[in-house]
Amino acid sequence: MPEKPYDHSQIELKWRQRWENATLYQAEESSSKPKYYVLEMLPYPSGALHIGHIRNYSIGDALARYKWMRGYNVLHPMGWDAFGLPAENAAIKNQRPPREWTLENVAAMKRTYQRFAFSYDWEREVSTCEPEYYRWNQWFFLKMLERGLAYRKKALVNWCSECATVLANEQVVDGCCWRHETTPVEQRALEQWFLKITDYADELLRDLAMLEGGWPERVLTMQRNWIGRSEGTETAFTLDTGAPLRVFTTRVDTIYGATCVILAPEHPLTAALVDAEGQARAKAMVDARASQGPGDVEKEGFFTGHYAVNPYNRESVPVWVGNFVLMGYGTGAIMAVPAHDQRDFEFCSKYGIPIRPVIRPVEGELPSAPTEAFLDDGIVENSGEWSGLSSSHARQRMTAKAEAEGFGKDAVTFRIKDWGISRQRYWGTPIPVIHCPACGVVPVPENELPVRLPLDVKITGTGRSPLADVPEFVNARCPACGCAARRETDTMDTFVDSSWYFYRYCDSRNHQGPFDPGKIGYWFPIDQYIGGVEHAILHLIYSRFFTKVMRDIGLITNSEPTRRLFTQGMVIRNGRKMSKNLGNVVAAEEVADKYGADTGRLFALFAAPPEKDVDWIDAGVDGIYRFLGRVYRFVTRSLEQIPGPPGAGAADRRILRKLHQTIHKITDDFETRWHFNTCIASLMELVNDLHAHEGKLSGPVLRTTLENLTLLLGPFAPYLAEEMWEELGRTGPVCRQPWPVYDPDLAKEDEIEIPVQVNGKLRGRVTAPVDALPDDIERRALGDDKIKQFIVGKQIVKVITVPGKLVNIVVK
Known about the structure:
Layout: H1 8-19, E1 35-40, H2 51-69, E2 73-75, H3 85-94, H4 98-115, H5 131-146, E3 150-160, E4 165-167, E5 172-173, E6 176-177, E7 185-195, H6 201-206, H7 208-211, H8 217-227, E8 229-239, E9 244-249, E10 260-263, H9 268-273, H10 276-290, E11 301-309, E12 316-322, E13 333-336, H11 342-351, E14 359-360, E15 379-380, H12 391-405, E16 408-414, E17 419-420, E18 422-423, E19 433-436, E20 440-443, H13 471-474, E21 475-477, E22 484-487, E23 491-492, H14 501-504, H15 517-523, E24 528-531, H16 539-552, E25 565-567, E26 571-573, E27 576-577, H17 588-594, H18 597-606, E28 614-615, H19 618-638, H20 650-671, H21 676-692, H22 699-713, H23 718-727, H24 744-747, E29 751-758, E30 761-769, H25 774-783, H26 785-791, E31 796-802, E32 806-811
Parallel strand pairs: 1-2, 1-24, 10-12, 24-25, 26-28, 29-32
Antiparallel strand pairs: 3-4, 3-7, 5-6, 7-17, 8-9, 8-11, 8-16, 10-13, 11-12, 14-15, 18-23, 19-20, 19-22, 21-22, 26-27, 29-30, 31-32
């Protein structure tokens, strides 16, 4: 039979049409099979997909297909993180309703997903902008309100002028908005809604131990640092006004070296202690700090004119305001010990504040004029009754004294702060509360959910929420007293939407609750979650928090949402991350048109290990396309040879050995390290061997090899695999066939290469049977022409032979 040309367009169209209405990828609700929940992070529907997106989804899809073939009941869903600022900004720019823009993008992206044959269970699809979904955002908010986990307060918040909304702390990157990398963040005082994530700070930190081995260490480290647990002592200085001034320190052993106290510029006492000019200076510090990265702050401050008394030595020290002191850490006030803290050293040196060493090295003396801070523990000196103690011993005893005498206590503080979820924008989940003049803040009754987002709204992009200008939305009746009241016009941070969506996939059509707890019990935790490392301190902390809250209200029993996390590398083009903002994207549809979806998938997985970045190279894509064509042509021209007689020749043995080595290699990669690039390379090697032995193989070996090659290719190039499976006369979808079984006896090499050294230096290699005895290996080594050049005319002292590993000839 003549070979057929590889027409990717016809092949992919044919199978896409066949699969269009199939239930091929639906998970079973109840099954005796082991379950496997694999999930890529749901995307924002921003428009056309590029090849960087395709890489992420190809990783998860290959894994899902492999697990089906290994006999698992696989859940592999997809949905849309559909609320958010880009839709609203696009509506302003293009004068189109956000919903219309969003749904149009959803439809376009879904077509691309289907074109690339991603194996999603579309019956479970969710979109976070639909009332059927966001009503449960509101329900969770009310449950947190009941438990004291949601609250409202006036606070300084991060404000992005370009987004015209509040940003959470985690959404500020180097002083700028995470979406607009050059837009400085300002500080504004607004009434805001918060979720009390700090109530779970200890547990969020402690439970990271449960994720070790399953999550990248880099992500675990980022979360530990962001949660930022610090143990220390909280102690009260006494202001000259008589008021207490509480400070937190992790180094109370250095308190005799405190030469001033420094307040954060937004500390409540700052406004009380300084005049109008001082208040203006403090406000300027706050605004400047919001627009600077954490490493860019030039330390500045000013004296308040007040003093505070150190409770340990009764010394009166000046009270300053400093721009590097954070209200969000500890108490918002520090005791400055310049001899033992480098930031304090720089600040006090700048302003001429005394530097007094009180800790000396264990083997050393106190410096008389230090040129930098001594940061280590040591021996306490010049500190009254504590002098001579080690730092650790002094901390214990000094904290105990503070507790006994009532001026301090043992304390723990965290870097993580409560999650501000209020946004002064339109395209988000309405916060379900009503403001009543008589009753105050009143929750919307659960039976009135969802509070629907009105659709006909004028969006201007100003700081005032567009919902505030919709009378039919704002004007409401108080659920408690029936009086005229005002509905909350802020919407929720869209990270609320993505904090629990993966639970909804398990029961996406439930109208009675967010999900059936029984279904969650079967599917959770997620077995494999895949997404970008940029979500380490945003989505991945918020979703862990939501999981623990849901557990505590009795909805679920698991404490963590996912067992394993994989963070894929980026796709690079022209030296930079592929991004629409940078204008260097390669559109997925263009790749599919020119080369086919299988080529796009295969290149995304072949170019580098999945955790590494990939450089997009057109020549590399051409190479993958040629490989797929070569495979298809070989299969189609080999069909008439398959009915041939059995045999047991050298070519058969060689190909069977290579086939089973390939099965073992790819299976091991799926089960351990996910080096799909080497999986594909091993398939290429097998195809090369098939070409080298073309016409020499028996019919049964040829059929076995081609069928197994097809199955091995299935997770990576599903269209071509399905076409080859049909050409080989087989029926049923490839992804539902059993995975090939590795036979170690067939994979075993008949002969192996053994390196030969002379006086410890590699001089050649010899081939010997796998089970060759040491004397036979030694004879082959000594008789090798290349080795003879290095031993001729020399005395052989001894020959060291390690069968199957090494020969070392020692000469003199």
